């Protein structure tokens, strides 16, 4: 049976207690759209309060450290995210890979730590504009998957992959339908080569400038199992419009 479309909001470094009203509104809206699985990843400072504020939607971290505890000033472990109420964490977001120099090996270690702490994982991959222009998008993304997919027992069952072309994040630009379809097909093939048959069941999200206006088109593409949404997830109104688009496709 096909899984429900999964729409995940990444709040990045945005949000204070005042934003809990948006989380509550997203939760109420999601309750009216049961054919869609909805989650948000607020900043770590809001995880616990968000967990208490919502009833239905999933809650996740945006990153975790690969170690359980220790002298890592400023970092947050997967066990801490879990303790604060997280169900999952994002790892390997391009802003972490670029701004914090995270390698595929780092991302894999974080994914393994998250799974070990009982969290599901959303693993981000994506090419830069230069890599796409050079015709290397699929090989770059394939290499990221080979280098960063977790391998511990049961990993594949708790894994979601998010394809996020770096040049589409926060820019208002999105790849063509054909390019998204080709990349998701390539990611599917790579997941099957890594995990065998189980790789066919891993949900693959698209991320990068998803908005209400383009959500239906993007979510209709074969092998696009949902969306990872940045800017448009910060208000319930814009985020629920995307969730609503996903729900409408399920109704058709
Ligand atoms: C993201 O950073 O994960 C993202 C998809 O951002 P945006 O939707 O703002 O492009």
From TrEMBL:
Catalytic activity reads: L-erythrulose 1-phosphate = D-erythrulose 4-phosphate; D-glyceraldehyde 3-phosphate = dihydroxyacetone phosphate
Quote the subcellular location field of this record. Cytoplasm
Enumerate the active-site residues.
Answer: 93, 164
**A Pfam family this protein belongs to?**
TIM
- Chief subcellular location equals cytoplasm
Q: Which GO terms describe its molecular function?
A: triose-phosphate isomerase activity
Sorted alphabetically, which InterPro entries does this protein's record hold? Aldolase_TIM, TIM_sf, TrioseP_Isoase_bac/euk, Triosephosphate_isomerase, Triosephosphate_isomerase_AS
Return the broad EC class. Answer: isomerase
Give the source's domain of life in one word: Bacteria
Q: In which pathway does it act?
A: Carbohydrate degradation; glycolysis; D-glyceraldehyde 3-phosphate from glycerone phosphate: step 1/1; Carbohydrate metabolism; erythritol degradation; Carbohydrate biosynthesis; gluconeogenesis
Q: Which UniProt keywords apply?
A: Cytoplasm, Gluconeogenesis, Glycolysis, Isomerase
Query: Might you name a Gene Ontology BP term for this protein?
Result: glycerol catabolic process
Task: Report the EC code(s) recorded for this entry.
Answer: 5.3.1.1
Q: For binding substrate, which residues are annotated in this chain's numbering?
A: 10-12, 170, 209, 230-231
Taken from the UniProt entry, a GO cellular component term is:
cytosol
Similarity annotation: Belongs to the triosephosphate isomerase family.
- Function comment: Involved in the gluconeogenesis. Catalyzes stereospecifically the conversion of dihydroxyacetone phosphate (DHAP) to D-glyceraldehyde-3-phosphate (G3P).
Cite the record's note on assembly. Homodimer.
NCBIfam families recorded for this chain?
tim
Protein name, as recorded: Triosephosphate isomerase
Organism, scientific name? Novosphingobium fluoreni
């Amino acid at each position: 049976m096909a899984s429900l479309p999964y729409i995940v909001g990444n709040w990045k470094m945005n949000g204070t207690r005042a934003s809990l009203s948006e989380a509550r509104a997203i939760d109420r809206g999601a309750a009216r759209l049961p054919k869609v699985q909805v989650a948000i990843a607020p900043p770590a400072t809001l995880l616990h309060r968000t967990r208490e504020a919502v009833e239905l939607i999933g809650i996740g971290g945006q990153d975790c450290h690969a170690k359980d505890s220790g002298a890592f000033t400023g970092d947050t472990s997967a066990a801490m995210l879990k303790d604060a109420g997280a169900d999952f964490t994002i790892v390997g977001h391009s802003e972490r890979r670029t701004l914090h120099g995270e390698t595929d090996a780092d991302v894999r270690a974080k994914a393994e730590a998250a799974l070990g702490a009982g969290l599901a994982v959303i693993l981000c991959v994506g090419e830069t504009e230069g890599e796409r222009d050079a015709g290397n998008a699929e090989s770059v993304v394939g290499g990221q998957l080979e280098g960063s997919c977790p391998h511990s027992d049961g990993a594949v069952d708790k894994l979601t992959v998010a394809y996020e072309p770096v040049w589409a994040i926060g820019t208002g630009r999105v790849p063509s339908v054909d390019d998204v379809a080709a990349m998701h097909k390539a990611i599917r093939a790579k997941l099957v080569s890594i995990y065998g048959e189980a790789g066919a069941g891993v949900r693959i999200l698209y991320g990068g400038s998803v908005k209400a206006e383009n959500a239906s088109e993007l979510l209709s593409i074969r092998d696009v199992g949902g969306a990872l949404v940045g800017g448009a997830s910060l208000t319930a109104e814009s985020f629920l419009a995307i969730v609503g688009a996903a729900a409408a496709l399920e109704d058709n």
